[in-house]
Amino acid sequence: MGYRIAVDTGGTFTDVVVADPHGHLFFSKGLTTPDRMFDGALEALKVAAEEIGVEVPRIIQDADVFVYGTTRATNAIIEKTTATTALFCTEGFPDVLTLREGGKLQPFNFRLPYPQPYVPRHLTFEIRERVDSQGNTLIALQEDSVAHAIAAARAAGAEAIAVSLLWSIANPEHEQRVRHLIEESWPGVPVTLSHQINPTIREYRRTSSTAIDASLKPLMQAHLTAIEADLAAAGFQGDLVVVTSAGGALTVSEVVSRPLHTVSSGPSMAPVAARAYADHDARTQNILVCDAGGTSFDVSLVQDGQIKRTRETWLGPKYQGHITGLSSVEVTSIGSGGGSIAWIDDGGLLNVGPASAGSVPGPACYGRGGTEPTVTDAAVVVGYFNPDHFLDGRLALDADAAREAIRSRVAEPLGIDETAAAEAILALANEAMIGAIREITVNQGVDPRECTLVAGGGAGGLNAVYLGRELGCPRVLIPASAGALSACGAQFSDIINDVTVSRFATTASFDHDSVNAVLEEIDERMDEFVRNLNTRADVAIDREYSVEARYPHQVWELDVPLDRGRVETEAEVAEIAARFHDVHERTFAVKEVGQAVECQYWRGRLTARLAKPRIHDREGAGPSPVTHRPAVFDGAVVPETPCYQGRTLPAGLSVPGPAIIEEPLTTIVIPPGTRARVMPSGSYLVDTDWSDDA
Amino acid sequence: MPDPTDTRARDRAPVDPVLLAVLANRMDSIVREMTNTLLRTGRSAILNTARDFSCSIVTADDRLLSAAEGLPIHIVGSDLLTRSMQRFHDDIREGDAFLHNDPYNGNTHHADHTILVPVFHDGVHLFTAVAKAHQADCGNAEPTTYAAHAKDIYEEGALNFPCVRVQREHKNIDDIIRMCRQRIRVPDQWYGDYLAALGAARIGERRLKELVKRYGPETIRNFCEEWFDYSERRMVQQISALPALTISGSGVHDPLPGLPDGIPVTVELTIKPDEGRIVADLTQNIDAVPNGMNLSEATALSSVIIGICNQLPTQVPHNDGSFRRIEVKLRENSVAGIPRHPTSCSVATTNVADRLINATQAAFAQLGEGFGLAEGALGQGPGFGVVSGRDTRSGDVPFINQVYFASSGGPGTPGEDGWLFYGIPVAAGLMFRDSVEVAEQKYPILVDEIRLLADTEGAGTFRGAPGARVSFGPLESPVTVAYTVDGNSRPPAGVRGGQATVPHDVHLIHPDGSWQELVTVGAVEVQPGQKIVSRTNGGGGYGPPEARDPLRVLDDVRNGFVSAERAREVYRVAVVDDAASGYVLSLAETERLRTSRR
């Protein structure tokens, strides 16, 4: 096995994680170079190469796999720099993207602007045709309406075309013919067909997927082709794979034809890394993953080793952003982080966020002109952050500025002292995070008390143990890779391809032949994917099957796993029904035993498992100097709180709270009544309910 | 039994401000979890797609505590429901659930089945979890949940449940279930919806019990008082910023059979900034009318409160604490008051309620620039109608449900254009839109067109959202469409110089292409080959259109919401079609147009 290179490019930083042929991991960080991504990656790679003791060109030439994670697509949508895209829709329905699926937050607020459609009305063109729900053609495709749409789109300056016709999932012929006509008269313009990118019922979701995908094609094709060329020029002969929102990776050729899969891929890798460390350090497969940065807090979930997925991923706020429509790693994200600003409303109530001080001017304690009190300032005031040793000493914090901001903006208006005010800010920030965690767990029938909480990100260690304790998680894990959880996740990722086919079946009179024909089709499509994989890395292929099911008349499904890729016996049908009743009761408190169960979406997931790095034990820790400083826990000052330098702690050491552990990229707060254990890998496993005399 | 005085005690321990915010968020997330349960498990599309239901938490002494994003028309007055639960039952205990749809005892209308689950801690009743869901059918004589022409409860024909126990010891009382199954169309659909509402209320119960166990009943009680007080303070602040004035608002529902002048509604609002209080008087309204249009007590109260809250510039928490600053005077046996049995209130949640909301929010515009809202679109046309018939695609089975795929426009406001997918004032953009594909899969109908229409917006500095044209028809066998249009003879008006929108009308299109105008309130059996089409209202405009930002006008012309001619005539903005770059703004010409008018 050769090297394995994982690169995660964000808006500001590029994280690189290299696994050497022995599976040792090396981390480094550099600035992102938007003009030519490869330059930034190369710079960061140099740092890692130095640590490994091998030249960069050699590492690239000997690499089997290059895993590329990019926020390029997501950022292009946010910054509105995607291609000018035309939408071709069924005549009579030009307003699918404008009307969306309705819904609005804040019932009495009429001063919210109505969201703009992803493709404006003046770039939407109607095609005369109609298919019904059974796939029958009611109005044949009128080719002159297609010709007119093509000419009009071209005149309007379109650079890509999204084709989304009603019921193309029941009969795709019209969409296919439209593509043919476009290729004839306008060769080379990128086209996305709705039944191909997202074969699901509900025209808004499918159209939204189609429009977003088409708008990304010119940009992502150019971007990925350039990376591929740069890598080839550097002598790379391995597989270039790209991280997707499904928590896996796809080959470049696949991503170029459906770039939508890279949208919102940013947070999808944290649970992959967290899962690997939880398995290694805590021997558990049920985890809650919290990734806390400066401006956002992302929560995801792993159950029985499976990363939780959703079909409702919004770019921007729910109902007001744009839905991607794909099955993606479910991430509940809130705009809460170290930079969130605390403020008092006109009723005298304390609020934290959603406004953030960002990195400029930043929290008051950064000393860059910020005067608003933030969560970071509160952490300084209560003594959690060491002003002289923040980010490994790279950023000196101004504790007086933090105290002043909290005194004047929060403590005085509330009539409490600064410490109490700082604690209140932290508690309220925690509450928003608890709300986000409950949304992804209890709202879907998952009990957080049965999970280990895994925390990553720069702000992750600050309140991870507190969150775990409050939610009743018995253990909290802060992995050794906490500072670069996403790039690390790319090291542990696999190539994943999902195939979904819609076919109705009911357990009341199960049509085995029809369902098995669908499952066979899924197998064939997965076979084809394997044939095209053409990888030089060692892969093991896994296949899993599931079905989305519901009670009659319901329209939202729940996922039911299948034991194998065929349903042949009555016992297997009964098992589908039994599993559905159980999951329905767990999720929604009621079940209707005896009622038939309708099965709608049959799904196959092919995983090409790549060789993984191993998590190694950390080597020779030195003696452990302890310093002491006052810090506040549960309303009381602990004057002599012990503070440890994390990198010096020996494996097996037990650190009882109250204590603070300073790592280069994060600070871990261990409250009283909890205990951290230093694991051989360098991770910390914290028991949230622990007492001295136990 | 609870002692209602102990939660109102003034000498309680103060709740620290942090816990106050923590618990307030927690209550909202419990309601959201209830809401999610009902949406995901509901069987009829009006629940699982359009979300015509609401969940709330009420204290044991009958005060609304939290409703998150519930429909305001549903949740204001939740306390009336729990009050009747306590009045009718002196043996409430853990494991009970009650079914309530009685508009004479606090419910909105018969079609809203409400499940009430009392929540106990150590044998003491602390809260009631409430889940109210609009049914696809409620056993009415005609296949619609809006019996507009029924002259009383007997003609309506709905099954009435005056807060009856439907579960004891967490088990169904099958007598009630059997009654519903015998009288409600498509009983399996009803039973699934019943389970969905029950599940939502039980989820609320489960979470509330956990919360009380975690913090203790004393802390939770204190929290409730503090939260009510905080909410009240926020409302007082809003009201004390208003001028001391008495204003009145009015509106007239379109004519109906036997009511050639329509149904007038009026509200008088006395603003008392010194007291931080608004008094709304509805007692001047006419007596109850002999059809289904009368409001119930719950909807009369909520319509006024909604109209007031809609126009507040800042959001306040919506619960008993803020609502107690609004006093609503109602009169018995009035069309917008307290109905006497057997007066019919079948349509109490929409038409007259919508007129009253519009009248109230628009009245505030009299206070000056920056106050009030224009009127929003009116009437549930065929695209929001109840469809029924038999589905021959799957063995000739009956179906009935309200569809929700039309669109109509929201009102212009002091700082923003109207919300586009608005529905009607009581829905206020909160409801979800049916997917055409899901609707066509579930019912044997074919939708022809859903299109926003140019030049239908109420023009204004901030315009109303445009209306739409929606048409559909049966696939193979006839489909009955029941609908209740308003806004035809008197379309929603603008305020402060803003203009009215277009009339809402309904037509039948025959196979030969001819259009036949239909009555505005009725039920029509549409035959295969025919289409039923409605053109909905937009919203009224706010402020004079000639003061509108020309760039907004340009956007509207580009996107086909306003024609270039109308831009010139009404907005006094010159938008020209430039062959090379499409529509562009002519600033000089606009300047000339706008100054020449003065």
UniProtKB/TrEMBL annotation, chain A:
Residues 206-498 form the Hydantoinase A/oxoprolinase domain. It comes from the Bacteria. Residues 4-184 form the Hydantoinase/oxoprolinase N-terminal domain. This is Hydantoinase/oxoprolinase family protein. InterPro entries: ACX-like_C (IPR049517), ATPase_NBD (IPR043129), Hydant_A_N (IPR008040), Hydantoinase_A (IPR002821), Oxoprolinase-like (IPR045079). Residues 515-677 form the Acetophenone carboxylase-like C-terminal domain. GO terms for biological process: glutathione metabolic process. It comes from Phytoactinopolyspora alkaliphila. GO terms for molecular function: 5-oxoprolinase (ATP-hydrolyzing) activity. GO terms for cellular component: cytosol. The lineage of its organism: Bacteria, Bacillati, Actinomycetota, Actinomycetes, Jiangellales.
From TrEMBL, chain B:
Residues 16-545 form the Hydantoinase B/oxoprolinase domain. Pfam families: Hydantoinase_B (PF02538). One of its GO terms (molecular function) is 5-oxoprolinase (ATP-hydrolyzing) activity. InterPro entries: Hydantoinase_B, Oxoprolinase-like. One of its GO terms (cellular component) is cytosol. GO terms for biological process: glutathione metabolic process. This is Hydantoinase B/oxoprolinase family protein. It comes from Phytoactinopolyspora alkaliphila.
